[in-house]
Design a protein that fits this description.
about 35% strand
């Protein structure tokens, strides 16, 4: 399991909600977030370890 971090925007008039989720993969994390917050919710989803690696 890996930790993924997301910012969810379900209301354009409010700041994004920061959440963390444990999942097997990025796709798994996306499915879990959509099941909890609803499909079509705009979010920024990433794994902090992957994001900090050189490209």
């Amino acid at each position: 399991m890996r930790r993924y971090e997301a910012i969810i925007w379900d209301d354009e008039t409010k700041p994004g909600l920061r959440v963390s989720i444990q999942a097997e993969s990025l796709d798994d994390a996306k499915r879990k977030l959509e099941s909890e917050y609803g499909e079509g919710v705009v979010f920024d989803l990433h794994n902090a370890d992957d994001a900090s690696r050189p490209r």
